[in-house]
Amino acid sequence: MTDGPMNHLQMLVGDGNLYICRVKNIFKPAYTGNRWLNGDKAYSIKYGYDWLQGQHEPVPWHYRVWNSLNIFKHSFIYSLDGVLERLKTRDHLFRAGACQQNSCLLCGVGEDSCLHLVFSCTSSSRICQQIMLWLGIKVSSYENVFITWKKWGRWFKSKKLQKVSYAVLAALVYHIWMSRNYTLWNDAVNSQSGL
Fold first, then answer.
1. Does residue 187 come out as left (phi exceeding 0), alpha (psi in the -120 to 50 range) or beta?
2. Which residues have a Cβ under 8 Å from the Cβ of 12 and sit 6 or more positions away?
3. Phi, psi at residue 157, to the nearest 5°?
4. In angstroms, rounded to a whole number, what is the distance separating the alpha carbons of residues 73 and 79?
5. pTM of the model
6. CA distances from 162 to 65, 112, 118, 130, 154 (A)
7. Looking at the DSSP assignment, which residues form a beta bridge with residue 103?
8. Which H helix or E strand runs over 151?
């Protein structure tokens, strides 16, 4: 979380009591006279919200993940898996002692981790190569989802085609994750053609 006024506001909302006077006191340092912050513009809700959020570090992958053509659930899983590595895979459970095995559910070779699913799983690499052939992109033998992610941005010159390719890539990561979960919960391997 960011430091600053947003933490105070979350504490107020968290206990169920949002007092207008307290919120007013949070905004007081930024609002003087009839002007907002340094006095060059009038207050608006947008400026107030931006001020409450605080400073955020820009990330280079946001336009790929939060693409306007992506379906939200695809973007969400894509951000957790491919970018932030926060999906709950068996390697996390194995380290916590909650499961006995940590092998990949799709290929059975590597450990079941976000890095393995995106970088080195043979099953996800084969699926990625098939989709690249379908899209007409030159395929090499070492293709994986991460290399593809960087490559597709350079391959397509049109912004519209880049957005479509990133939406396809987000869907690919989502369906790889769903196939992995299907294998885990149903004790059955989902075929690559089923993806």
1. left
2. 18, 19, 22, 23
3. -85, -35
4. 10
5. 0.67
6. 12, 30, 20, 18, 8
7. 111
8. helix 145-155
For the record, the structure tokens of 123 come out as 């099953």
pLDDT in tens, the chain (195 residues): 445 555 555 544 544 455 455 666 676 666 665 566 666 666 677 777 777 777 878 777 777 888 899 999 988 888 887 566 777 788 878 888 888 888 898 888 888 888 788 778 888 888 888 888 887 777 776 666 666 766 777 778 888 888 888 898 889 889 888 988 888 888 877 665 555
C-alpha 19/C-alpha 9 separation (Å) is 10
What backbone phi and psi angles, to 5 degrees, belong to 82? -75, -25
Q: Where are the domains of the chain?
A: 5-53, 62-194
| Residue whose structure tokens are 């790929």 | 64
Cα 153 vs. chain centroid, distance in angstroms? 17
Structure tokens at 101: 């095995």
Q: Report which residue type is found at 16.
A: G
